[in-house]
Write a structure and sequence with these properties.
This protein is an all-alpha fold and 121 residues long. The protein is built from 5 helices and no strands. The protein folds into 2 domains: 30 residues, no CATH class; 67 residues, no CATH class. Helices cover 40% and strands 0% of the residues. The longest helix is centred in the N-terminal third of the chain and has 14 residues. The protein is rod-shaped and about 80 Å long. The N and C termini lie far apart (82 Å). 18% of the residues are buried. This is LIPID TRANSFER PROTEIN. Belongs to the plant LTP family. PEARLI1 subfamily. InterPro entries: Bifun_inhib/LTP/seed_sf (IPR036312), Bifunc_inhib/LTP/seed_store (IPR016140), Hydrophob_seed_dom (IPR027923), Plant_LTP/defense-related (IPR051636).
Length: 121
């Protein structure tokens, strides 16, 4: 008597799983949805964005956006603008700024754009 082929063993395996509730097993293997990105809970972390404005000491050889932009990764343009507007108004960056100019510089440094109708107030 010959040993069962790989195809035959695979068929038996799948058949057994179907009998034991394969849909439930497959459902448990579905990837979990990614939670939506949001502004950092600790807004003090956005102090790293002050480097982009050239108003604090920047480490030589390190682009200033490497600390700021990852904090905003995954956010839509409007969310980035809101997040940074809030940080600027709360003076999280530790400096007094011209809000529209600073916001524009920070947002564009991270490859985002401010929606045309957005106002940081």
């Amino acid at each position: 008597m010959r040993a069962p082929s790989v195809k035959h063993r695979l068929f038996e395996f799948l058949y057994d799983y179907m009998q034991m509730g394969m849909p439930a097993v497959l459902a448990s293997l579905k990837p979990k949805p990614t939670p939506p990105a949001s502004c950092p809970r600790d807004t003090l972390k956005l102090g790293a964005c002050a480097d982009i404005l050239g108003l604090v000491n920047v480490a030589v050889g390190t682009p200033p956006y490497t600390k700021c932009c990852p904090l905003l990764g995954g956010l839509a343009d409007l969310d980035v603008a809101l997040c940074l507007c809030t940080a600027i108004k709360a003076n999280v960056l530790g400096i007094n700024l011209n809000i529209p100019v600073a916001l524009s510089v920070l947002v564009s440094a991270c490859g985002k754009s401010i929606p045309p109708d957005f106002k940081c107030q």
